[in-house]
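Field notebook, page 313. I keep forgetting to write these up properly, so this time I am using the form the group agreed on. The chain and the ligand, calcium ion, are recorded exactly as supplied. Prediction of the bound pose follows.
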Amino acid sequence: MTAGQIIIDTDPGQDDAVAILLALACPDALEVLGITCVAGNVPLELTTINARIICELADKGDVPVFAGCDRPLGRDLVTAEHVHGRSGLDGPTLPAPTMPLQDKHAVDFIIDTLRERPAKSVTLVPIGPLTNIATAFKNAPDIIEKVKEIVLMGGAHFAQGNVTPVAEFNIHVDPHAAEIVFGAGVPLVMMPLDVTHKALVTRARNAAIRAIGTPVGRAVAELTGFFERYNPDRYGEDGAPLHDPCTIAWLLKPDLFKGRRVNVVIETQSELTMGMTVTDWWGCTDRPPNATFIHDIDANGFFDLLIERLARL
Ligand code: RIB
Ligand code: CA
């Protein structure tokens, strides 16, 4: 089977870092054509540094990394240093990157790649705000029909919000971009908080990651160890949710997940509910389904996969 070709669009972020590592650990199944960075958890300059740090941690300094949009389409940037630390990658001490940042803008890389490659051969994996993806669709509408699938981390329904009472961070930061992406008609799989909050790095799982015994294992244990300090206070749970790696795990082993085809519309009018993913779970409207809403996960199977693959790096 030929490896699936993907572009990871990201705002690293500890959980982004684990998603990138998981993808880079599986070259037999996934060919990472490039990593496009966006402003989100921390400003763009830091996300481009963090993405390269992670590539070099995986000894994959040949993966091209691109800088993208430094602010949302129509709102001021909101960042999340209180969750990810000032660097966006707090936890382990990792060396500054030596690999270069590509000269090409991330949006142009997305457009050029989709134009140059066969239709329906490239999957987009956005795990931060959707600004780069939406900008590419606005600048080059011809590429929309060429996208094979979008597998994104974002949104929430029964789980409610994590940055406002009703909105999840990635969608809230750039709701106008999300409106474009969810309305583009591309086959779309969403990994909302409803499923990612079931992928918790418990102490036992963190110990198993550390027990991999490699620099990657130790770094991931420290990344998730830092990330988890935030969760128990708010959610009273043991461990941090591994949001972004759920997208890569779906591509590797979709049977670990359960989902439902639903209609999702993005709130962009009211400040009170800005960025809410209004999910027609019970089919109350005549709006056609536009997303596969993933709501359940075999968490033990997910962590078994993660640990087994990270050990390859
Ligand atoms: O709400 C969780 C999402 O916001 C994750 O992608 C995390 O990295 C942050 O970007
Ligand atoms: Ca992210």
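OBSERVATIONS:
- The longest strand covers residues 30-37.
- Residues 11, 13, 16, 41, 127-128, 244 surround calcium ion (ligand 2) (CB under 6 Å).
FOLLOW-UP: compare against the apo run.
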